[in-house]
Amino acid sequence: MSKQSRWFAALMIFALLALVSINVAVAQDGITQLTILWAEWDPANYLQQIGNEYEAETGIKVNVIQEPWGSFYDRMAVEWAAQGDAYDMVVGDSQWIGQGVEQGHYVDLTDFLVSEGIAETVTPATLQYYAEYPTGSGRYYAYPTEGDAVGWAYRKDLFEDPQNMADFEAKYGRPLQPPETWAELRDIAEFFTRPDEGLYGVGVYTQIDYDGMIMGFQNAFFSWGADWKNENNEVMGVVNSPEAVEALEFYKDLYQFAPPGTGNAFFAEMNDVFISGQAAMIMNYFAFFPALINPGVNPYAETTGFFPGPKGPNGDQYVSLGGQGLSILSYISPERQEASKAFIKWFAQEEVQARWAAVGGYTCNINVLESEEFLSNTPYNPAFADSMTFVKDFWNIPQFGELLEPAQRYLHAYVVGGEGTAQEALDKIVEAHQEILEDAGILGG
Amino acid sequence: MLKHEAQAPPAPAARPANRRQISDRTLSQLFIWPTLILLIIINIFPLFYSLFLSFTNYSAIANRPPEWIGFTNFDRLLNSSDIWGYFSLTGRYALISVGLQTVIGFGLALLLRKKFRGSGIVTTLILIPMMLSPVVVGLFWKLMFNPAYGIFNYLVGFTNPVTAPDWLASPSLALWAIIIVDVWMWSPFVMLLCLSGLSAIPDYLYEAAAIDRASAWFQFRRITLPQVAPLLLIAVLFRTIEAFKAFDLVMGLTGGGPGNATQMISVEIYSQAFLGQFRTGRASALAYIVLVIIIAVSNVYIRTLNKVREG
């Protein structure tokens, strides 16, 4: 090899090494994309829109991967088990947080959220249910992203019909208006149940899969003063308390005013029976209400009204919590974790949250929720802002899935199948819960 | 001339030497081993691994290794009245559903045995249900069963939606609703096997019986039934195994509800293995119990089949 050739070879090797080192540097420091997993629904599309704004500002692409609700948890659980780094963040269900924290899947965001002042910007209820674990610990693992709760939609055209108003007042001795208590809601449901006209009073959640039935029943359950546990996590005598029995009997009573064929119904079926004119009122998560104000989807869009969950017999008012928080997964590199925190910091800014609310996302930001702009943005936003102050949730410990299953089964058997009594159904649930909690070491055997 | 030489087939001696060295045995192994390796990876290994898991408290999402707990899973399952209830329900479902499919399928085969104008089209139309996806079938039958707007109640005479039964929400009717759909979907399969059995019966048997003035019932009992029996039993065996594994249709129609009313054993396995619970070890144990039962039932069928063939 000539001297000239040796120099040329050395130059080529140097150039090659320089290129490789540049590539490594880009791969380590220059995060160019963030991947977020969420369920397949409209809010995920809204988050993608907000993510596109982030890309325009920073050059970092935000990719929101959507998984159908039915397999959303399974997909995340499998990724957790594999300790995979396919996703940087997940907008995880409120019930997952215990598992995410105890099994080390979520990054502890306490210092970040507190030191950046982000924790103070969201409503206390959302911070507690979407971010904090264990409850009351002051440790946060998510940024409350999509606030949601169960609310109610009703047909204003039916409620404001003079004949209906007169007939209702004559029968029940009070004016026909959106109910403030469960008892009033039952009367209205009864009043509008007219099978001959194909009209029924109310649509309620009854789905046997996952948590559908519970998310419906809980609205009455909590408002009757019942709960899934006491402050010591005891369940015996709590889940099957007299208040719980009364609430369950009430929920079953309400189901008789539901449109036929809704014995296994959740959010999609609720909107279906409303849009098809079969139900005068329906319960549903606020996240599914945008379809109801769209005249292209709902023929009653112009006359659809909304109200928050009603009060129980003693004035207690609670609604089932929906919604999710944005968590960073612990299996990604420290660089990607920092990039994810930078995204959350940007996303949590008030002006970005205002845009998030404007495109259709349910912000948890206190100031945005209270703003006139937000309250007047859609007809259901005032009810949503109200509801987010009295939300309550099911268990959020890692065993939540095991606890859901017997509750779903026995509630469904009683409410839809008409098997046994409310007391028997709740006794069976509490026995199963006791056993699961004892096995998990949460309760002494 | 040159062109002609170029087109001449090469002499045997010109073949590459290494090709001739592959023996028949090597060649057969080259075909068999990839399949065997594939089978071991996707079939044999999971079979034995799930057997191991059935003796552990493993959860696929718990992020901890399987912990050996001996027969605890089997003990819990076999002492659970709920599980025996699901077995009993599955058995009842299999018995009624396969029984009806056998009668209807065999009946249809007898009707279609003689060729008539358009019989090919009719046979093809009857076979359509079994070609559809069970999930799709479940979903559209769910709409047909809807008491408010479904066509099923109307067809069976309940023309008033107010008094029409809600098939999928009634504990006493939900199982029958699944049976109706399963029979609609799979009777054609029994029919198909019976048709092939019927077409194989030699005509001279019937001719001889006719000469002896045998009645139609006698011909059916002594010629048709014994000749078709082996294929009929195979159809029954397949359908029984499938009925024990009933899952997609049940999930599409009722999800196991109302309450436990249609919680078949396969739905229970799914529920234990997934649906938020992820009790992988216990679900594996239950799957093995079902496997043993299916093997036992299949053995009974196969012995009967052999007896029929010998007799």
Describe the protein's architecture and organization.
The complex is a heterodimer of chains A (445) and B (311). Chain A has 445 residues and is α/β, with parallel strands linked by helices. Chain A has three domains: 1-27; 28-148 and 321-392, Periplasmic binding protein-like II (D-Maltodextrin-Binding Protein, domain 2), CATH 3.40.190; 149-320 and 397-439, Periplasmic binding protein-like II (D-Maltodextrin-Binding Protein, domain 2, 3-Layer(aba) Sandwich). In chain A, 48% of the residues lie in helices and 13% in strands. Chain A has helices spanning 3-29, 42-58, 69-81, 97-102, 110-115, 124-131, 156-159, 162-172, 182-192, 212-223, 242-255, 267-275, 334-347, 350-359, 366-370, 372-375, 381-387, 400-415, 422-439, and strands spanning 33-39, 61-67, 89-93, 143-155, 200-203, 279-285, 304-307, 319-328, 391-392. In chain A, α2 (42-58) packs across α14. Chain B is built from 14 helices and no strands. In chain B, α13 (265-273) packs antiparallel against α14 (280-310). Mean pLDDT of chain B is 89; it is low at 1-6. The interface between A and B is large, with 39 and 34 residues.
Q: Would you spell out the secondary-structure blueprint of this structure?
A:
The complex is a heterodimer of chains A (445) and B (311).
Chain A: H1 3-29, E1 33-39, H2 42-58, E2 61-67, H3 69-81, E3 89-93, H4 97-102, H5 110-115, H6 124-131, E4 143-155, H7 156-159, H8 162-172, H9 182-192, E5 200-203, H10 212-223, H11 242-255, H12 267-275, E6 279-285, E7 304-307, E8 319-328, H13 334-347, H14 350-359, H15 366-370, H16 372-375, H17 381-387, E9 391-392, H18 400-415, H19 422-439
Helix pairs in contact in A: 2-14, 10-11, 18-19
Chain B: H1 2-7, H2 17-21, H3 24-53, H4 72-78, H5 81-113, H6 119-131, H7 134-145, H8 151-155, H9 174-199, H10 203-211, H11 216-244, H12 248-253, H13 265-273, H14 280-310
Helix pairs in contact in B: 5-9, 5-11, 6-9, 9-11, 11-14, 13-14
